Amino acid sequence: MNGYTCVVCVKQVPDTKKVTGQAMKADGTINRAALPAIFNPEDKNALEAALSVKERYGGRVVAIAMGLPAATAVLREALACGADEAVLVTDRKAAGSDTLATSYILSQAVKKFNPDLVFCGRQAIDGDTAQTGPQIGEKLDCAVVTYLEKLDLDGNVAIATRDIGTGVETCRAKLPALFTVTEKFGELRPYEMRRVMKYKNAAPTILDCAAIGCEDDRCGFAGSPTSVNKIESVVLAGGEFKEVAATDEGIGGLVAELIKDHTIG
Amino acid sequence: MKNIQGEVWVFAEQEEGKLSDVPFELLGKARELASKLGVKVGAVLMGSGVEALAKPLFEAGADVVHMIDDPALKVYRNKAYRHAMVELVKEVNPQIVIFGATHMGRDIAPSVASALRCGLTADCTDLQIGDYEDKKTKETFTNVLHQIRPAFGGNIIATIVNARNWPQMATVREGVMKPLAREEGRKGELVKHSAHLDGVEIPVEVVEIVRKVSSVNLKGSRIIVCGGAGVGSKENFRLLHDLAGVLGGAVGGSRAAVDLGYCEHERQIGQTGVTVRPALMISCGVSGAVQHLAGMQDSAKIIAINTDKDAPIFKVAHYGIVGDLNVVIPKLIKAIRAKGE
Ligand SMILES: Cc1cc2nc3c(=O)[nH]c(=O)nc-3n(C[C@H](O)[C@H](O)[C@H](O)COP(=O)(O)OP(=O)(O)OC[C@H]3O[C@@H](n4cnc5c(N)ncnc54)[C@H](O)[C@@H]3O)c2cc1C
Ligand SMILES: Cc1cc2nc3c(=O)[nH]c(=O)nc-3n(C[C@H](O)[C@H](O)[C@H](O)COP(=O)(O)OP(=O)(O)OC[C@H]3O[C@@H](n4cnc5c(N)ncnc54)[C@H](O)[C@@H]3O)c2cc1C
User: Fold this and answer.
1) What is the pLDDT of residues B154-165, one digit of tens each?
2) Which of B5, B84, B85, B219 has a C-alpha 20 to 30 A away from that of B324?
3) From the list B104, B157, B211, which residue is nearest A234 (CB)?
4) What are phi and psi of A83, to 5 degrees?
5) Which residue stretches of chain A are H helix?
6) C-beta atoms of A244 and B320 within 8 A
7) DSSP state, A21?
8) Residue B119 touches chain A, beta carbons under 8 Å
9) Residue B106 pLDDT > 80, yes or no?
10) A28-44 b/e with 16+ CB inside 10 Å = b?
């Protein structure tokens, strides 16, 4: 075999770790504009997995993002770190896609490259579902290996270590295979300065839904069985509140109360 | 596909012939949903040599156990489980299917939903039956599943419905639903199904599984003492163990405490750790970020100790002590010891 073709799905996400009062609108929805747009953290681990395959066994790495043209920023980052090709799937028809439609569109884009290995992050920090990866895998009808921590290749077989929650599993998966990668795989290598300059203004290959052969009724709102009925910001549910003085008397009284109502003792 | 007589299903996750906790939690919720709808609760039991597990499922609330017993299902593998489950859904046509949001649940559920082309809501913290109006088409739907889940890093709560493409599927966060009390001797119907795996190629072979041995049992503890970044050091976590010791409780930590190396990861409470609801939670030096609160705010009683009177943890606490935990905890220990005598 002459190296492996790897595809990595990378998503641009609002930095939900930075959500403060300002990022919440009065109606409880998120003001996305108030949050910086970043490279989804676990997609960096996914990119690292792909780059390490290329480094160790040869091949090439294609990064695919679906989103608005602004998502070009994460594709440039991917190129600067060593990806060979960048593809942006952007189309108004994709708006409102839930994970079923997102995974359909992405799987159609992935198929164009006929990859040996496909890498996704485990989860995106905005939708937080961790569903897109396994759903792309089902549509490609290939081996699906989630929660990847370590990967070696032996011809057309991947030897993968994955977290299964109750322990760690080692499996052999026949290629082609799709992996969802966790932070345990290891950090993304630093940019190469030379590549940062080279790709600063790089334009990705732009594809719309028609170019990747999507059926319209499987994209966007039309292709999404789930709908968001209501969104609320998290309200802290306070019950009755008693302030207790940090003194011997205060704390002694609290303990007496807890014993009396059988919480302790 | 819409079957309003369809059962409410729970995926009865098992490993090595042992059911995990989550199907018992889900059966509690499934009973509530099914009684609103006037339908039966089904548990889907897959594995090899698992027939003995039907009994505890009946006793936990299942009316029907749909069993697929096949050597190819001995250990969990995506393709094999997905394929068997998809065939089963097509055959029996349930109206709701819920999975635990465990590693296994989050692997099989999206794969099954993708194959059936139906919706799936991730990591729900509540499920309710209600009506829904599609604001665009003005269509109304009765008795649909309202799937309530945190998203956006835990900063919002979304209610999601899947009114058209049934079955309605969801994964549910571990530890948030309450299991029913076991009803000894409760019986149900065991239905055996085929895995339909003849001629299906399974591209993955499991070579080895190394199980984690966990010495911490936060979920089963009535009293939990939880420390955050405010504890200040690993050594100082001793103080929390001392307090837990006099109360017969367990020690948990915030993510910051785990990241700083003050305590082990398995002690992490919150969205990315365990969800607990003890009779008493004593929170020490924890600020109360939403992701942390998601894992503990349903505790029956919460005592918060924090030097910052404006810390959000006080908003969920029943008792607040504004003060230095290094002073307050020893006083608490002393007071508990004194009352115990
Ligand atoms: C509040 C809220 C709640 C939602 N709840 C649900 C729900 O319960 N069920 C549901 O089906 N949809 C839900 N959605 C929609 C969902 O967020 C979108 O479908 C989204 O496009 C993909 O899901 P995710 O963000 O959860 O990604 P995940 O599934 O968590 O992403 C996993 C990986 O897939 C890849 N990936 C995902 N999206 C892209 C992309 N656009 N480009 C490139 N790679 C990508 C990345 O590698 C990523 O790491 C919700 C959206 C919101 C705003
Ligand atoms: C997607 C996502 C998932 C997350 N999941 C989790 C999760 O599962 N669990 C979790 O806990 N966090 C989680 N977090 C992190 C969370 O946002 C917070 O960063 C974390 O909970 C903070 O931990 P802390 O309260 O211990 O630390 P801090 O926020 O630093 O708070 C320390 C507190 O200690 C107080 N303090 C300091 N000294 C003393 C003293 N001597 N005595 C008394 N009080 C003192 C301070 O006033 C302060 O309030 C998650 C974040 C994200 C984005």
Assistant:
1) 888 899 999 988
2) B219
3) B157
4) -65, 150
5) 41-57, 72-81, 99-111, 132-140, 193-199, 248-260
6) yes
7) G
8) yes
9) yes
10) eebeeeebebbbbbbbb
Buried/exposed code over A198-236 (b: 16+ C-beta within 10 A; e: otherwise): ebeeeebeebebeebebeeebbbeebbbbbebebebbee
Q: How far apart are CA B309 and CA A245, in angstroms?
A: 12
What is the reported pTM?
0.87
Q: List the 125-144 stretch of A: residues with Cβ below 8 A of B.
A: 125-135, 137-139, 142-144
* pLDDT at residue A22, as a whole number: 62
Interchain CB contact of B15 with A (< 8 Å): yes
For chain A, say whether B125 makes contact (Cβ under 8 Å).
Answer: no
Residue nearest to atom 51 of ligand 2 (CA): B291
For B107-125, write each residue's pLDDT tens digit. Answer: 999 999 999 999 999 999 9
**Which of B15, B151, B161 is the closest to A229 by Cβ?**
B161
Block residue for tokens 């493409």 = B165
Query: Quick check: B208 and A169 CB within 8 A?
Result: yes
Of A126, A166, A263, the CB nearest to B152: A126
User: Per-residue pLDDT for B214 more than 70?
Assistant: yes
Distance A146 CA to ligand 2 centre (A): 29
